[in-house]
Automatic annotation (TrEMBL):
Transmembrane segments: none annotated. Residues 105-256 form the SusD-like N-terminal domain. Residues 375-492 form the RagB/SusD domain. This is RagB/SusD family nutrient uptake outer membrane protein. InterPro entries: SusD-like_N, SusD_RagB_dom, TPR-like_helical_dom_sf. It comes from Hymenobacter terrestris.
Amino acid sequence: MKTISASLRRLVAPTALLLTLGLLGCDKQLDIEPQQSVDAATALSTPEGVQSALTGVYARLDLPQSYGTNLLLMADLLAADLPTAATFTYIGWQGTFQSYREVSRKQMTDVNTEADRTWNQNFQTINLVNLVLDALPVVADADDKQRIEGEARMIRGMLYFELARLYAQPYRTTGAFSNAALGVPAPTATPGLPINLSANKTEADAARRIARSSLEETYTQILADLTAAQDLLPEANDRTRFDQYDAKAFLARVYLQRGEYATARDLANEVINDSGASLNASSVSTFTNKNSSEVLFEIQQNDQNNAGNSNDGLATFYSSNAAGFGGRGDVRIYQAFADQYGADDQRGFNPQIGASLIYEGTGRRAGFLRTYKWNNAGQNIPILRLSEMYLIRAETNLRLGTNVGATALVDVNRIRTRARATPLANVTLASVLQERDLEFAFEGFRVHDYKRTGRSIGAGTAAIPANAPALVMPIPKYEINLGNALPQNEGY
């Protein structure tokens, strides 16, 4: 399904709190029968109800409109080469869904289905977070109350960050790739997101009009939520729920985006040294083994409950329908990108499927390169990996001329050695950024990295500048018509 019912077309969530979300798979949450929902006041009147609601919020992270598909896939498609390019450098879209084709070709309008449903469903999750936070006084146990608040604020901060990166220009204040150097207004003058921290419980609440805050104000709220989560969350947890090192890792990602390199470096270093996580022996196992030692947090899926296996889901779009896959083969990898990996690099191409993270697809659209990262609808989705912390530490140490924790060369080679790639003899900023390209390919990193560092998407005459309006998603037309989320983004 690619449409959203009219009753859900709101910036804010309805007053009913859906407590069965943790049991739902695919995108069936758009077709819930009335008897499956209970009034928020009833659901959140007990500690058990609040905990159930938080479990439902976790479940919503797996929605196809969220981390289940779109927060990764749409970012990847924004980094896709245009079909008119003379040289293809990354990926291309071969699928039949017009909404995703528009994203990949940078031809979106304000009624693009993916921009619409991604905005809508993630803001509904944010409102469910607000409902949980509003109900905290009913939780008597101090430890439970603190943990619930930490988890809820972690999720809210994460979603505001993801939406800000998709629906606003990048935040950069200093250095060669600052907002000024990129030719875009300062964060204080750049539109961010509509920020709503109040739970909407009534029709009057839902009828409020919320304009866009500045990008500066948006990031202030993101940092407030994630910093609070860092202090509130338990020191250690399993990989299915957030702990304080997840908050530190995500904060390192946010501070890197902001260009606050010393803070990003120190947070990444702390996660590396103290979280207890360790790199897997294989690059492939990160995406084939659930809850491995390298993953700080991942979205939990299984064969029954997942983001989708026909019209949604990462494996649906990225994998071929070779034996054991069953994907659509919609996203192809261009040979020029695969060639950037060395011959023995597990992250590159190997003709034996499963021996590396790039393979040649068979069946539908046979003969094109695919990624093995998303190979099964029921696999977990890694969101925070230790390898990211090593490469954040490497980049920030190099930019700052420091060697906190290790030299940039040691950290980059740590990632390359794990992948069976040839170690580098020396490292530059360009080689660190390329290592991020290689390590995080097809995980939704590329467009955000290119925008924050001022690099064009694509090559030659088809290259798109980092500050191009076409690399920013449109605010859905229905929000503009309702008077919310103004002003609209440039170009729409």
